[in-house]
């Protein structure tokens, strides 16, 4: 099995914060923009059940892992549990604004149901793919302040905090996968994870597209002009989806590891700004 490339001095630190309790939030909390708001709201709806799936998938392979990886899995689980709690609270703000998210939640349930009665290694493969998605989205979010310009402070702080921790633990599911498949050939490992990534990519983007459009429909915003504005937001300006494409392609390269792209400097910068804001 190739040696894991997670930095030896990396610390995965659960930051137990609570955001937005007792705070009134506008319906369009991100710069008064319904499209930007729907983009993040639709993503948030997926997290409580999705992160529960990640936890279960990784935990099933924790036994027998090297001590360091086992400690990282434990820290990963703690971070994801706290993320789940905060997105439940965030989603409560979404419904408080009159949005019906039941259709979005049903879509998440349907996607998770596809993993039932499948081998646990398949769920782990899906998890490492989705964890790669969250890590590269987190990187793009933190790298360009325009993504959260004009956001209500508590909402912006929650998304930045989540992004920091997604980058920090981005290698855990991958390293767990490498350990779990240590007896596989490199070809078999690449074939399975690449196939799962292609399937996951389609389901991820199609699900978020439908979720965003459903929330916009509830705002009375439909039709080609709205679709064009959504495409421009995702791929043009600020273009969060466009900016992750290079890192998405890197997943298929031989020798890929999430920490081949060491973006700890971005974590440190965002974390220091976050800590300063908390102190104030």
TrEMBL record:
It comes from the Bacteria. InterPro entries: Haem_Oase-like_multi-hlx, UCP07580. Coiled coil: none annotated. Transmembrane segments: none annotated. PANTHER family: METAL-DEPENDENT HYDROLASE (PTHR39456:SF1). This is Metal-dependent hydrolase.
């Amino acid at each position: 099995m190739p040696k894991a490339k997670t930095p030896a001095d990396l610390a995965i630190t659960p930051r137990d914060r609570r955001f937005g309790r007792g705070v009134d939030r506008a319906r369009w909390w991100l710069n008064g923009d319904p499209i930007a708001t729907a983009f993040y709201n639709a993503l948030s709806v997926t997290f409580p059940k999705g992160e529960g799936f990640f936890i279960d998938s990784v935990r099933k392979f924790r036994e027998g892992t090297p001590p360091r990886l086992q400690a990282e899995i434990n820290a990963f689980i703690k971070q994801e549990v706290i993320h789940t709690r905060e997105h439940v609270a965030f989603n409560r703000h979404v419904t408080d604004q009159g949005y019906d998210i039941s259709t979005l939640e049903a879509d998440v349930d349907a996607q998770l149901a596809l993993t039932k009665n499948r081998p646990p290694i398949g769920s782990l493969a899906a998890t490492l793919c989705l964890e790669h998605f969250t890590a590269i989205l987190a990187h793009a979010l933190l790298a360009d302040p325009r993504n959260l310009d004009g956001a209500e402070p508590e909402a912006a702080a929650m998304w930045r905090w989540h992004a920091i921790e997604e980058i920090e633990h981005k290698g855990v599911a991958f390293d767990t996968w490498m350990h779990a498949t240590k007896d596989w050939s490199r070809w078999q490992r690449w074939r399975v994870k690449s196939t799962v990534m292609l399937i996951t990519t389609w389901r991820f983007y199609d699900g978020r597209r439908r979720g965003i459009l459903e929330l916009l429909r509830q705002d009375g915003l439909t039709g080609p002009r709205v679709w064009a504005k959504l495409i421009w937001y995702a791929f043009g300006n600020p273009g969060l989806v466009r900016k992750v494409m290079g890192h998405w392609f890197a997943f298929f390269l031989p020798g890929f590891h999430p920490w081949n792209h060491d973006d700890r400097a971005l974590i440190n910068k965002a974390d220091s700004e976050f800590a300063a804001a908390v102190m104030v």
